[in-house]
Specification:
Distance between the termini: 170 Å
Structural class: alpha+beta
Helix content: 55-70%
CATH architecture of one domain: Roll
Number of helices: 3
Oligomer: single chain
CATH class of one domain: Mainly Beta
Radius of gyration: 52 Å
Strand content: 5-15%
CATH topology of one domain: Nucleotide Exchange Factor Grpe, Chain A, domain 2
Largest sheet: 3 strands, antiparallel
Strand order of the largest sheet: 1-4-5
Mean pLDDT: 78
Low-confidence stretches: 14-18
Number of strands: 6
Amino acid sequence: MEQNQQDHSNQKTQSEEASPENPLNQQTAPIQEEFKSTINSLEEQCKQLQTQLQQKEEEIAKQKDYYLRGYSDLKNDMNRALRNWAEEKENLSSLILEKFILALLNGIDNLERALQSASQFSENSSSINSLKEGVRLTFDGLMDTLKKYGVEKIKTIGEFFDPNFHEVISQEESELEANRIIREEFTGYTLNKRLLRAAKVVISQEQKKTQG
């Protein structure tokens, strides 16, 4: 009997606690509502922050891609400019060197003609021999220097005529086959395998057959 009374008393207490009319529930209800509202507000703010963060990440990715493309284009432009500058510098250097050597070749031609003229004098003349030797040493020294810079004589005597390197000034009948160079009138030169000055030459032509 006492046990039934105790159970009935507990049920009554729990019913009173759960009842909306319970003064305690009435006091905590506003706090619970405010707490729920705060939680909902925080969740909404989190969603907004996540959206803003995603937008910023996308914007940063676009800016990074734009920067990388711009950097790549700038690097390519710089490399292209450097190549063009190097080529122009090389071409200018070659042009200056070519003009200098062409001017120098006039003096070499004079030395070469002096040597040819001196060979006509008597070999017994010591003064002539000394002069010839001096001119020869000067001529050889100049040619050695030019060779270091890529200057070479164009081969002529016995070679076939090549319009890329030879200039024909006349033709003569010869026992040699046609278009063979039989005499060099003016020395030609190349600079780094490119034509600097064509060699002026005389080439052979077939002998005319005599009627028997």
